[in-house]
Amino acid sequence: MKIIRDLAALRATSAESRQNGRRLALVPTMGALHAGHLALVAAARQAAETVAVSIFVNPLQFLASEDLSRYPRDEAGDLAKLSAAGCDLVWMPEVATMYPDGAATTVEVAGPAEGYEGSARPGHFRGVATVCTKLFSQTGADVAVFGEKDWQQLQVVRRFVADLDLPIRIQAHATVREADGLAMSSRNVRLSEAERAVAPTLPRVMQSVLGAIRGGAPLAPTLAHGMATLREAGFAPDYLDLVQPETLRPWESGPGRLLAAAKLGDVRLLDNMAL
Ligand code: PAF
C-alpha cells in the first residue's frame, strides 16, 4: 500500500495505475475509519482495479464555531485498517497542499445543498464540494464511493458532478449500522456510555415514523410526534423531515427519504432512511 503526501507523486501513481484501461476508485474520508468506511473500500475494490482512499480532515467544511481539533484522528490505526482491507493507495495531503496561500476558488452548490445540514452548518457543503472536486481532479478517479449515511452530501456531490460535467461516476453504498441499529459514524466515539445507550432510539423512532406514514398516517402530525418522542428520550432534535430523495424538496408522493439530525449531549447524530 502506497502512502502519498505529495501531489506530483499522486499524479504519477494515479497515471500509472490507470494505464491500459484500468480504473481507479476513490473513497474520500476524513480518517477515524470504522467498519462503515471499510465497507466503502470493499465496494471500491469491486468497482475498479485500483483502490485509493483519501484521508484529509478538511478545514473548509467546518464552521468557525466547530472545533476542528476535536475531530477524531488515528493515522496509525487508519493505515493498518486500510492495509488489511486491500487498499492500494492512501492520499494524505497537508492543508497547505490542498489550500495553498492565495487559493481563491470554491465550489458553491444550490439545490440539494440548501436546508437541513446546509442551514445548520452554513458553508459546510461549499467545503465538501470544493474538497471533493479537488480530490477527484488530483486522483483522476473513474469512480468515487460515498456512504448513504450522509444523504444530503451524496446528493450535493451528484449534483455538482453532473453540473460541472466531471468525468467520474458516483457510487452510493448503504449505511452500515451497529447491531442495535445506530448508523456508524466517526463521531459516535464521542458519545458517553449513557448517550450511546440512548442513541439507537433515533433509528427506532425513524422506523416507527416511516411505518406510520406507510400506513397512511398524516405527515405533519406524524413528524411532530417523532420529534416529541426524540425530545422525551433526551435528544435535542434539529429536524425530522420527509423529502424527495434527490432534490430534498418537500415530499408529496412517490419515493421519499426521511432525514433526521439530533444532538445527544454535544454530538450531532445524522441518519436517513428510504420511505
Ligand atoms: O464524508 C466525509 O467524510 C467528508 O465530508 C468527505 C466526503 C471526505 C469530504 O471531506
UniProtKB/TrEMBL annotation:
**Which reaction is catalysed here?**
(R)-pantoate + beta-alanine + ATP = (R)-pantothenate + AMP + diphosphate + H(+)
One Pfam family of this chain: Pantoate_ligase
Q: Which residues are noted in the entry as (R)-pantoate-binding? A: Q61, Q153
Q: In which pathway does it act?
A: Cofactor biosynthesis; (R)-pantothenate biosynthesis; (R)-pantothenate from (R)-pantoate and beta-alanine: step 1/1
Q: Which InterPro entries does the record match to this protein? A: Pantoate_ligase (IPR003721)
Q: What is its EC number?
A: 6.3.2.1
Q: Which residues form the active site?
A: H37
Subcellular location(s) of the protein: Cytoplasm
Q: PANTHER family from the entry?
A: CYTIDYLATE KINASE/PANTOATE-BETA-ALANINE LIGASE, PANTOATE--BETA-ALANINE LIGASE
User: How does it associate, per the subunit comment?
Assistant: Homodimer.
Q: Which NCBIfam families match?
A: panC
Q: Which family does it belong to?
A: Belongs to the pantothenate synthetase family.
Question: What's the further remark here?
Answer: The reaction proceeds by a bi uni uni bi ping pong mechanism.
Q: What does this protein do?
A: Catalyzes the condensation of pantoate with beta-alanine in an ATP-dependent reaction via a pantoyl-adenylate intermediate.
Q: What is this protein called?
A: Pantothenate synthetase
